[in-house]
Amino acid sequence: MTATILFIRHAAHAHLDVRLSGRLPGVPLSEAGLAQAAALGAALVGQGITRIECSPLTRTCQTAQAIADACGLPAPTMVDALVEIDMGDWTGAAFGTLHGPAWDAWNNRRGTARIPGGETMAEAQARIVGHIERLARDADGQVIALVSHSDMIRAGVAHVLGLSLDNLLRFDIAPASVSRAVVGDWGAKLLSLNERMC
C-alpha cells in the first residue's frame, strides 16, 4: 500500500513575515498570494493528483481551491488534522513583540517546548502523521495534495526523514511550495523538498 503525498504550503497572505497568524480566522491570501495560488495550480496540472485536502483556514482553502480549479478536481476536503499549530497566547502577535524564555525555547527546543496556551510540536506532528498513515492505508496508488502550513509540513517531512523536532528549522517551506513523499506500510521516502513551481 503506497500513496504519494504532495505537502503544499498555502500561498502568501498579508500577515506573512509580519504577524504570527496561527489559527486566527479571516486571514485570506493577499493579491500576490492569489496570483501564486493560480500559478501553482497551473503548474500542478498533469501531476496525477487524485484528490485535494486542506486545513480549514481561509488561506489554505483558497490555495487548495485554486489547485482544484486548475486540475479539474472536486472541491477540496477540509481536514482538521492539517490545521495550523495552536499558537495559543501568541496567536495574532506581531513577530517584533515575540521574545523571552518561552519564545526562545520554542525556537531552540521544538521537541519539548510548549507554546503558552497552545500545542507542542509533538502534538501537532502526531496529528499530521496519523493522517498521512491513514491515507497510505486507504489511498493505495493515489496522489494526494495536502495543503497546510509551514510548520505542519516541516513536522510531516521531519517524520519521513526521521529528523528530530529540535532540528525542524534546518530547512525551509516557502509559500506555495511543494514537497513530495511516498508513504506506505513499509515506511516513507522523501522525493523532493520545498519545490517552487511558480
TrEMBL record:
Q: Which Gene3D superfamilies match?
A: Phosphoglycerate mutase-like
UniProt-recorded Gene Ontology molecular function terms: phosphatase activity
Q: Which SUPFAM superfamilies match?
A: Phosphoglycerate mutase-like
Give one Pfam hit by family name.
His_Phos_1
Q: Which GO terms describe its cellular component?
A: cytoplasm
What is the official name of this protein in its record?
Histidine phosphatase family protein
Q: Which organism is it from?
A: Sphingomonas carotinifaciens
